[in-house]
Amino acid sequence: MKTKLIDKLSDISRIHRRAAFTDVLKHTAPKPSAFLNLAAERYSCRGFDARPVPEEMVESILEAARLAPTAVNRQPVHVWVARSAEALEKLGTATPYIYGAGLVFVVGCKPADAWVRKYDGKNGAEVDAAIVGTHIMMEAADLGLGSVWVGSFDPAALASAFPELADWDVVALFPVGWPAAEPSSNHASRKSLEEFASEL
Ligand SMILES: Cc1cc2nc3c(=O)[nH]c(=O)nc-3n(C[C@H](O)[C@H](O)[C@H](O)COP(=O)(O)O)c2cc1C
Question: How far apart are CA 53 and CA 57, in angstroms?
């Protein structure tokens, strides 16, 4: 039974890869869920047009972020919204990867507030922040917006530009806006399901 499911998923995975995530998805069986379609369609968007993102969409992205699960529900994560010309300019001192977006979500975590695994002392703050960031990207995609996870920034430059971030470890920046760039070739390049997942 399990093997059959893996085979079926593997077939779907192959079709998705061949089609570079186009609408062939809807011809696969079993019918992909709305979430699977969204996951296939979301891509790292590295160019945005000038139209502003409506306030309701900003709020809906923040709500999706707020609802993200965290270890032991510690919620050691904070999200900042950068969209003033001044804030965007300051972000630009820490990274060249804002891609002209007029809206950037900044996700930070506080390890001191996070769950720590007793067996080996591993701190859960970054994992919690990563889930929050994923919710941001997926809600943006569901709203028809583009986004990209930006991990390449200079933390020291960010801290000096924004003293209010002093107590936080910034995990990622998320430029968000109306998509004006196609996916890179990376988007259609994933390990096969056979390589990616296996039975224990
Ligand atoms: C942890 C992480 C850090 C990333 N950092 C950057 C970055 O600094 N700049 C960038 O342009 N893309 C960044 N990306 C986007 C990845 O390059 C992209 O997700 C990957 O190549 C797959 O492409 P896709 O998102 O279009 O499917 C990052 C993604 C992740 C998950």
Answer: 7
User: Which residue has tokens 């919710």?
Assistant: 135
Structure tokens at 68: 């993200």
Q: Under CATH, which number does the domain 55-177 receive?
A: 3.40.109.10
pLDDT per position as a tens digit, 153-180: 999 999 999 999 999 999 999 999 999 9
Locate 114 and state its tokens.
Answer: 């996070």
Tokens found for residue 142: 């569901």
Closest-CA residue, ligand 1 atom 19, reads 44
Q: Does the CB atom of residue 186 touch ligand 1 within 6 A?
A: yes
Instruction: Using the mean position of ligand 1's atoms as its centre, give its distance from the Cα of residue 151 in Å.
Output: 8
Residue 138: CB atoms within 10 Å: 17
Domain boundary assignment for the chain? 1-41, 55-177
Look at ligand 1, atom 29, and give the residue with the nearest C-alpha: 149
Count of all residues that appear for the chain in the document: 200
